[in-house]
Write a structure and sequence with these properties.
Blueprint: H1 8-12, H2 20-34, H3 43-59, H4 62-71, E1 84-87, E2 93-96, H5 108-114, E3 129-131, E4 146-152, H6 154-159, E5 161-172, E6 187-189, E7 218-221, E8 231-243, E9 252-255, E10 265-271, E11 278-280, E12 283-291, H7 292-297, E13 299-305, E14 308-314, E15 323-326, E16 342-349, H8 356-368
Parallel strand pairs: 4-10, 12-16
Antiparallel strand pairs: 1-2, 3-7, 5-8, 6-7, 9-10, 11-12, 13-14, 15-16
Helix pairs in contact: 2-3
């Protein structure tokens, strides 16, 4: 009914926070189930198929989905351009634009529909074959940049390093050269249009050309190497990758042209923790032991830094947890040069056992200070 609100999430059976992959998977499954060719003469199935297609057309488009989520049953009023006529409460009519040309859904939806019966990953068509003729090979596009996680040690993050990494990434199938078909000469009649190249009754929404074979009437055998995807996973060795000193957790190193199809490859860096140090931006924090006598009387204590042991002068009466700033002994700064600071936290060490003489002296000290303790005989 005109103006009736349709819950597209409910139609596809997905949650409102479903991602693109979940939405696409649900559409494929329901489109197969309700397709008019699978349910000849079933008007109810045909109506459900159209609802499923409409739901996917909206939820697979970020802009349309955002408007739908924001405005609910009035979302079409906030879209502009030609396309299907929509209705809003009060009798007014508005329109929204489809992604394809004349005849209804198009663009990405046509391409997706053409692979519906070939497996969840867009593989071959019926019986291990995929469309041929008009060539279902996607129009060449710039390859998307790829991000790959790598791990380095805390010391490597401090000093910088040059490493070799081995990553697994998609690349064009060498057997089919990205077409997804095994052999252009091995074809058979398209199982959807039976070799006519024309859409059969019940699919007027998609125009007169068979969407599975693109009008060729033929289907080609799926490439066994990539299973129709046109890509395979391959390991790639990345030699002499420079990781700069001072890099932070989660930062990326760009390798221009090292990704699939000469795209950029980004290495996302994670850093193994060092139990001795806590890092906050470019500053480091560490604990250092200080004898209780030195803490009371003042003196010197050793602090382990990333550049070796350093001697720190501590004042009399130093308390546990007291911080001492050691300038320029933190992490290198990626921008601006120099280094952060190292903050050394005093950790007073009390001996677990005392010699008789030490015990005697401590008793005497306690009596002099009138410490409220029970001094044994």
């Amino acid at each position: 009914m005109a103006g009736e609100y349709k819950d597209y999430y409910k139609i596809l059976g997905v949650a409102k926070d479903a991602d693109e992959k979940e939405i696409k998977s649900a559409y494929r499954r329901l489109a197969r189930k309700h397709h008019p060719d699978v349910n000849p003469g079933d008007k109810g199935a045909e109506d459900k198929f159209k609802d499923v297609a409409e739901a996917y057309e909206v939820l697979s488009d970020k802009d349309k989905r955002a408007k739908y989520d924001m405005y609910g049953d009035q979302w079409k009023a906030f879209s502009q351009g030609g396309g299907f006529a929509g209705f809003r409460p009060g009798g007014g009519t508005t329109t929204y634009t489809t992604t394809g040309g004349a005849g209804g859904f198009g663009g990405g939806l046509d391409d997706l529909f053409a692979s519906l019966f070939g497996g969840e990953n867009g593989g071959g068509g019926f019986g291990g074959f995929r469309s041929g003729g008009r060539s279902r090979v996607p129009t060449a596009r710039p390859a998307a940049n790829v991000e790959y996680p790598v791990e380095i040690s805390f010391n490597e993050a401090y000093r910088g390093t040059t490493r070799t990494f081995t990553v697994t990434m998609p690349e064009t199938c060498h057997r089919c050269h990205g077409s997804g078909t095994a052999n252009a000469g091995r074809s058979k009649p398209c199982p959807m249009c039976h070799g006519t190249g024309k859409a059969r009754s019940g699919r007027a929404l998609f125009g007169g050309t068979c969407p599975q074979c693109g009008g060729s009437g033929e289907a080609q055998e799926v490439c066994p190497e990539c299973r129709g995807n046109g890509q395979v996973e391959k390991q790639k060795r990345l030699a002499d990758v420079r990781i700069p000193a001072g890099i932070k957790e989660g930062q990326r190193v760009r390798l221009a042209g090292q990704g699939p199809g000469n795209s950029d490859l980004y290495l996302k860096v994670s850093i193994r923790p060092d139990s001795r140090y806590e890092r906050k931006e470019d500053d480091l924090y560490t604990d250092f032991p200080i004898p209780y006598t030195v803490a009371a009387l003042g003196g010197e204590a050793a602090v382990e830094t990333m550049d070796g042991r350093k001697i720190l002068t501590v004042p009399p009466g130093t308390q546990t947890g007291q911080n001492f700033r050691m300038t320029g002994l933190g992490m290198p700064r990626l921008k601006g040069g120099g280094k952060g600071n190292l903050y050394a936290r005093a950790k007073i060490v009390v001996p677990k056992s005392l010699s008789p003489r030490e015990r005697e002296l401590l008793k005497e000290l306690a009596q002099l200070r009138k410490d409220e303790i029970n001094v044994g005989a």
